[in-house]
Amino acid sequence: MRPFTYARAATEDEAVAACTDGAAYLGGGTNLVDLMRLGVAEPARLVDVAHLGHDRIERRADGGLRIGAAVTNGDLAADRTVRAEFPLLAQAVLAGASGQIRNLATVGGNLLQRTRCAYFQDVTKPCNKREPGSGCPAREGEHRNLAILGHSAGCVATHPSDMAVALAALDAEVRVRGREGTRTIPFGDLHRLPGTAPERDTCLEPGDLITAVEVPPLRMPSRFRKARERASFAFALVSIAAALRTDVPGGTVTDVRIALGGVAHRPWRARRAEERLRGARASGEAFLRAAEAELEAAEPLRDNGYKVPLARNLIVRTLSGLVAP
Amino acid sequence: MPRIRVEVDGSSYEDDVEPRLLLVHYLRDRLGKVGTPVGCDTTNCGACTVLMDGLSVKSCSVLAVQADGREVTTVEGLRAGHPMQRAFHEEHALQCGYCTPGMIMASIDLLRENADPSEDEIRDGLEGNLCRCTGYQNIVRAVRRAATEMRRPASEEVTS
């Protein structure tokens, strides 16, 4: 690992002031330290933001939650309110990594983790995300696990987070403290598609610090499911976070949220499918048509075409389970 | 160089460390606590698992500076004849033994969350620990046995 300096911030002000160019924030470090060991990340300074008091989950006046950025994945998944009222979020967190990693990993860091594309993690290979302009060997190479939606000529990486898929479905917002003050970013605007700048995963600017995630109340049945190559400790091939409400059992869909993971450079909110379903009768046939409408935009690569039917079937099965649990 | 204060296995230490020093190397090379092995060295296998403030972490991917102000327990810090250690012995839950310290520490954390885990819950709870000898059957049995013992009231333990 390249040498670096270390500063522990006691306040947000201190953290932002210390995060000068070339510095990186340290939450739990479960991804960053790995990337530093691989030589993929080489920050000149780490600013430890684990001690800013952002480690609480608070109830909002509207019944939603404000989740501090330094809350660990383990604490989030164990929280009674999260389990009872936002089961898709607890399920998504528990589907990720292992106990040891969840004990350390933080909500803020989870959102900012980098892709596990093998070329990105291998400094001997070209990668436009790691080294802009060097090329993307994944497009013609090993891409079984990579994107089918929204990719570009320069990058076919996927976002690895399970938690982020649930937060996308929850219409969450991200509180950010930056050099110019604080602001709130709708969750769907946080992560980018790769386009011509795959080195940028998010819309955040240098110095920006995620301080909390705001989650509005859900009040409808929800579920997270993850298809992967083995039963545990593996990234998603395709995952889904969904919630559905009907006026009467088996009746008309009054509200629906669908987000997919493992298919794109960011958590993929399936807006087209949602539009199809709103006001429609909740049925397997309707779910299938909605899934197909969403996946019309899919552009699978040579070896990941399997993700299209996998995503379609996950949408249908998950929504069907929500109307007839 | 940052100075850290850490309590390891009941003793306090104060040391200047390089920021890039990993916790596992601090424990092994500075404190001589070689009971915690380095396994895969890539956060996968879990052999280096220790408890930090009671929660299991993989010490090969934690910086020593992150342990500042915290309490670390390694396999060496378990009291002699800890029920988990005894159960691993009695159920032959080790072959080459390389994964054992990590398995024991992760299993202790598992029982903290769930005092009476089923076989499936144990397999799920130990998803971050790999045994290259594939001795999982006996590991699961050992955790079940330790769980039973650890749930027993202390008074019974004394008389048994």
Tally of individual helices of chain A:
12
Number of domains of chain B: 2
Oligomer: heterodimer
The largest β sheet of chain B comes out as: 5 strands, mixed
Describe the structure.
- The complex is a heterodimer of chains A (325) and B (160).
- Helix content of chain A is 28%, strand content 20%.
- Chain A is built from 12 helices and 12 strands.
- Chain A has 325 residues and is an alpha+beta fold.
- In chain A, strand 2 (23-26), helix 2 and strand 3 (45-48) form a beta-alpha-beta unit.
- The mean pLDDT of chain A is 97.
- In chain A, the strands form 3 sheets. Chain A has a 5-stranded antiparallel sheet with strand order 4-5-8-6-7. Chain A has a 4-stranded antiparallel sheet with strand order 9-10-11-12, with helices on both faces.
- Chain A has a domain at 222-323: 2-Layer Sandwich (Enolase-like, domain 1).
- Chain B has 2 domains: 3-77, Beta-grasp domain (Ubiquitin-like (UB roll), Roll); 83-153, [2Fe-2S]-binding domain (DNA polymerase, domain 1, Orthogonal Bundle).
- Chain B has helices spanning 23-30, 83-90, 100-113, 119-125, 136-151, 154-159, and strands spanning 3-8, 11-16, 49-52, 55-58, 71-73.
- Chain B has a 5-stranded mixed sheet with strand order 2-1-5-3-4, with helices on one face.
- In chain B, helix 2 (83-90) packs across helix 5 (136-151).
- Chain B starts with a strand and ends with a helix.
- The mean pLDDT of chain B is 94.
- Classes of the chains: A alpha+beta (325), B alpha+beta (160).
